[in-house]
Queue: 2 jobs
Job 1
Amino acid sequence: MQVRSKIWLAVDGEPVFGSGREALFKAIDRLGSINKAAKDINLSYRKALSYIQTMEQRLGEQLVERKTGGLHGGGAHLTKEAKEFMKKYEQLEEGINEMLDKKFQDVFGKGN
Amino acid sequence: MQVRSKIWLAVDGEPVFGSGREALFKAIDRLGSINKAAKDINLSYRKALSYIQTMEQRLGEQLVERKTGGLHGGGAHLTKEAKEFMKKYEQLEEGINEMLDKKFQDVFGKGN
DNA sequence: CAGCGTTGTGCAAATATGTTATAACGATAG
DNA sequence: CTATCGTTATAACATATTTGCACAACGCTG
């Protein structure tokens, strides 16, 4: 038996950023394309796009700058705001899993 | 903006206990019936039952003792094992939210 | 032995999710 | 100036999953 956890940020109760979106952002940053990023992390382009759209809508700022047409067909890259957001999320996550694992050992480890 | 979290236990990667199931267990304990419990926490009876069944299957022990027929048509109540499980889960959750809220303030509070 | 309210299951409807097709775009090559 | 290319973006379709409803079985009670 293992313990799992998920941390995410919400606006008005609706999720705007979590581990899935973080992975998407990282892939976009690495590959320069929503399409390639989605494939890389095994996500449909549709879902990836709707993630981005709802995030931007709920936060009220652009996170992924995208260009259609042009060299190589276009592409996408993260805005400064998106990178800051990612960084903060990582700080938030930091240490939580370790703490949870420790607690899990305390509670479930010896007794059972 | 708020931070949210979810903690659950898994066996072989498949979830066996989380906040939803905890709420179901509490309602069963209070109402003595899966049916009433499901309605109380806005869950379909089918889903509630499949939760219980998969949990019991994966853990290999009975968690909800149920009787069909008889006084008031039957009913259900938690086994000793289920109550112990709930207690441990609560211990596991304890303090995590407080710690997260504090971290959230640290990271998102002043800067933005 | 009929009535009751529950557990449990089968099936259709509804909803969510995934997949494929296609249009628009604009720099570049020819 | 036109064709090509890979991308963004949307629409239409297909597939899984969830939900809702109906109904049988059960066993205590009056």
Note: Chain A has a mean pLDDT of 93.
Job 2
Amino acid sequence: MATAERKGPVSVVIVDDHAMFRRGVRAELESAGRGQVAILAEAADVDEAIAAVGEHRPDVVLLDVHLPGGGGAEVMRRVTAGGGAPETRYLALSVSDAAEDVIGTIRGGARGYVTKTITGPELVQAIGRVAEGDAVFSPRLAGFVLDAFSGSIDVAAVDEDLDRLTEREREVMRLIARGYAYKEVAKELFISIKTVETHMSSVLRKLQLSSRHELTRWASDRRLL
Amino acid sequence: MATAERKGPVSVVIVDDHAMFRRGVRAELESAGRGQVAILAEAADVDEAIAAVGEHRPDVVLLDVHLPGGGGAEVMRRVTAGGGAPETRYLALSVSDAAEDVIGTIRGGARGYVTKTITGPELVQAIGRVAEGDAVFSPRLAGFVLDAFSGSIDVAAVDEDLDRLTEREREVMRLIARGYAYKEVAKELFISIKTVETHMSSVLRKLQLSSRHELTRWASDRRLL
DNA sequence: TCGAGGATCAGGGGCGTCCCCGATGGTTCG
DNA sequence: CGAACCATCGGGGACGCCCCTGATCCTCGA
């Protein structure tokens, strides 16, 4: 935890495509965050958000993940690419607790991620901590965020794994991932069921998976279908 | 369209599990709906909603679709089953524009369905029209709602099939479609493997499918994951 | 009150999945 | 040539998937 020393109020820009949600956040911050939070601007889409951040250079941007024009990650990418507001922190505020949303947003540069079930006082506290450089996550998200960044899949590692498959193994893998039974794969490739089993065994071992269902998800995650 | 004659303000109960969103709606209705809308109560889950509707008997219930305790449809079902507030109209207010959410909510008895992208003045107007008996839908939803109720093969057929599943069968179906093994489903739902097998048997028979792989494709085609 | 249907569970069987063990022939490379 | 790797196949086994029959308990409506 950083120290609680602060000079003045934390300046904030609210980015969300729902006007009513912005209004609710504003109302909560103005009552629960009395004197601690100053709302500089609101934005309803990616372009507005970029303009608002560039103009006001807030301490913290409250950023909705699902946003017309490319999503919250797009905002962070384009602001930092434009060299603007390097000291600004981003706190994602989303209804979604899906792993891909969370990880994608953190990869994009957010310093925290809380769900919209948060209460006003908790949000004020989260904003304060993010402004001071802490990372803030909803309790339910904290666990798997750490998992994802402490030794799980890397994009580079994916291609290495794929390269270690032989041509025949890749053919079998594709068909299995599409839901073919071993018997059907065998007929399709004019080989025996036993050969299919052997290839599948190698595929699962090389990709460190344990079932055809995991393989299906693995392949669809990487759009290999 | 009904006439615009009204004696006094329309009484409203707001149901949504996000306190901040309720606050935003309240703020919008109190400024944009000045004198036309009277907010009687708020509720954050199914039980609170039922109690609030029974106690206040509002003209209109603003009802979130995704709600802890069974969802908005559950609120309408239990209020009408309890004989309470027959003259109360329900207006669904949701982030989701998924077909199953919309159709399920309308089937549950809602007189309208608008997304949370709506503005304050539009919401005030929608509440007024629902109170007078009109049906109100966001422009984007209107088209396919009409389709679904005028003999569309696609959505209607899906929904019929889905309707024939019991609640428990749908739970099992969702987990299986996500790749859970029977054993895992059993642990998740605190029932025996044999019961899972029974439910799956019913699911496959009712949906005229023959394996969990077909079920996975069926579900993903209809975005039920 | 009786039947229908839903949720729960058991046993047994056929087949699919995935693993272990093994084997043969083919290639490439040092 | 031998080592390494690949593709091909087999036996056997443990376990998962899916079906069938049959059962109990409960709730709801005719």
Note: The beta strands of chain A are 10-15, 37-43, 60-63, 89-94, 112-115, 136-137.
